[in-house]
From TrEMBL:
The keyword Coiled coil does not apply. Residues 298-339 form the Mechanosensitive ion channel transmembrane helices 2/3 domain. Residues 1-20 form the signal peptide. Keywords: Cell membrane, Membrane, Signal, Transmembrane, Transmembrane helix. It comes from Mucilaginibacter pocheonensis. Belongs to the MscS (TC 1.A.23) family. This is Small-conductance mechanosensitive channel. The chain crosses the membrane at residues 135-156, 204-223, 243-263, 299-317, 329-355. Residues 342-407 form the Mechanosensitive ion channel MscS domain. Residues 418-500 form the Mechanosensitive ion channel MscS C-terminal domain. It is a multi-pass membrane protein. The keyword Lipoprotein does not apply. It is found in: Cell membrane. Its main location: membrane.
Length: 536
């Protein structure tokens, strides 16, 4: 053998011998889990020596295997240029460096892969125990869990029964008080079964929750059923996790919605303040009536909130989904088809607002309905008659017909009340005029100025129609003023001995008593006899 070859063999043998001797001489610090040594660390890392490093890795492994949802298959390995990292989900378990590989015949990636294989195999059997002692402990733990579950259900039933009795006693005392005060008790009795049924439903729901929470604990006690426990918990944990994550991700959009809402709200408040000032006369705008202020504010408020919703809509959760958009379109179509008459009334209400045909408190007549306006909104107008009857009239009906307003100029020019009497031709018209005017002037509620006046409206076959016209500012008391005017007309005509024969004044007076009350008849009055004329 050549001399150079012998020298090379000796050098290689010396290197292997030195490496083996270094491994034997170096003191390794084991990572022990459940009295089982997984591997040893011979070198430190960073600020930790080998012993501290082994202790830290041991604590990390014990931490992850103590989790109720631990799954060894979630352990992963990532090789970088200078270090190999074994992690569980996003938590780092240990790191293998190049110095660790010098204490092994494997290179760094191979050594890290062997550590990962050891962790998966050993930790997968962490809870597995074939000795009878462990089996007995598991059974006793399961019995304890079942006993605790039974005790909790028993306590829940007792507590529910106690709460039910308390509610029944409290309810009976309340019903006795209501009965003593004369209030109807049957309604309260009908509510009692609803409350007890609700309490029973709550009890059943709580029992189901307790059983569902106890099942994962039972399954987790036995290694063979551990996956079932993890699956049961995932049914509860995963939805809550998704909800919490969705809420966290939605926070920026929620802040945007809050800002848009706050800005819109303060704009609406500013417009309301200006509208109130205009309605109270503090601010005046040419050709803008004070009664327009609040209706205009309501319209602007609706438009602003509608615009706000349009701006907010893209930030709502699920607004970009096809289902959400389809439901929105469907509801819009239903609203459009089902509210055509309502929309017509709303448009009519807006038009009536700016037409100003009447306002709250005015006495108006719409068709056959007459009364005081007690409410007006975008949909309807409500009148209250002199008989305290409330009449609701759609705004579209008012807009399509004619409206008589008795109050508009009553305070300024005066409302003219008129009534007609028919008097025979034998009474001078000057006398009738004087009597009617004096009756009007004596009526409470009739204005002194302008003065009442009389119109002769018709020359009938047997009588003349006289219409007396009187001014009043009391448009809301028309019925009372009319009644007093009629009373005074009767009194004045009776005092003057003038008969009011309506509708016809008979021309045959012989043998008939005068048609006025007895207290107005003169004392020397005698009923005339029948006058008969014949040929001589």
């Amino acid at each position: 053998m050549p001399k150079n070859c012998r020298l090379l063999i000796l050098l290689v043998f010396a290197a292997f011998t030195a490496q083996a001797q270094k491994t034997i001489d170096a003191k390794g610090y084991p990572v022990i889990i459940n009295r089982d040594t997984l591997f040893k660390f011979y070198a430190g890392q960073g600020l930790f020596d080998a012993a501290e490093r082994a202790g830290m890795v041991t604590k990390r492994i014990e931490g992850i295997v103590s989790r109720i949802d631990f799954n060894p298959d979630s352990l992963t390995l990532k090789n970088d240029t200078s270090v190999s990292i074994i992690s569980y989900n996003s938590q780092i378990i240990l790191a293998v460096n190049n110095k660790d590989a010098t204490f092994s015949e494997l290179n760094r990636p191979q050594l890290a892969a062997s550590y990962l294989d050891i962790l998966k195999k050993r930790l997968g059997n962490y809870f597995t125990s074939n000795n009878s002692k462990q089996v007995i402990i598991n059974i006793l733990e399961a019995i304890a869990v079942i006993a605790l579950l039974i005790a909790l259900i028993w306590a829940l039933n007792r507590g529910t029964r106690w709460a039910k009795l308390k509610i029944l006693k409290s309810w009976e005392r309340r019903m006795d008080k209501l009965a003593a005060q004369g209030a109807p008790v049957m309604y309260a009795k009908r509510l009692l079964p609803l409350i007890t049924g609700l309490l029973r439903a709550i009890r059943v729901i709580l029992i189901i929750i307790l059983i569902y929470l106890a099942l994962p604990v039972l399954f987790f006690i036995f290694p063979a059923s551990k996956p079932i426990a993890v699956q049961l918990l995932s049914y509860v944990v995963n939805p809550f996790k998704k909800i919490l994550l969705a809420l966290l991700h939605y926070i920026p959009n929620l802040l945007t919605i809050v800002v848009i809402y706050i800005v819109t709200r303060y704009i609406v408040k500013l417009i309301k303040f200006i509208a109130n000032e205009i309605s109270q006369g503090a601010i005046t705008i040419n050709s803008f009536y004070p009664e327009w202020a609040m209706p205009t504010y309501n319209i602007i408020r609706v438009l602003l909130y509608a615009f706000m919703f349009v701006v907010i809509f893209p930030y709502l959760p699920g607004s970009d989904s096809k289902i959400f958009q389809g439901v929105t379109v469907f509801l819009g179509i239903l609203f459009s088809l089902g509210s055509s008459s309502a929309i017509a009334n709303m448009v009519s209400g807006i038009v009536l607002t700016y037409m100003r045909p009447y306002k709250i408190g005015d006495r108006i007549k719409v068709g056959e309905a007459m009364g005081d306006v007690v409410e007006k909104n975008l949909l309807v107008t409500r009148l209250r008659t002199i008989k305290n009857e409330d009449i609701t009239i759609p705004n579209a009906t008012i807009l399509s017909g004619h409206t008589i307003n008795y109050t508009t100029v009553a305070k300024t020019m005066g409302l003219i009340l008129n009534t007609t009497v028919t008097i025979g031709y034998d009474v001078p018209w000057q006398t009738v005029h004087d009597l009617l005017i004096s009756a009007a002037e004596a009526t409470d509620g009739v204005s002194a100025e302008p003065k009442p006046f009389v119109l002769q409206t018709a020359l009938n076959d047997f009588n003349v129609s006289y219409q007396v016209n009187a001014y009043t500012a009391l448009s809301n008391q028309m019925a009372g003023v009319y009644s007093r005017l009629h009373q005074n007309i009767q009194d004045k005509f009776n005092e003057a001995g003038v008969e009011i024969m309506s509708p016809h004044y008979t021309s045959l007076r012989d043998g008939n008593h005068i048609q006025i009350p007895e207290n107005y008849v003169p004392e020397d009055y005698k009923k005339p006899g029948f006058k008969i004329e014949g040929e001589q």
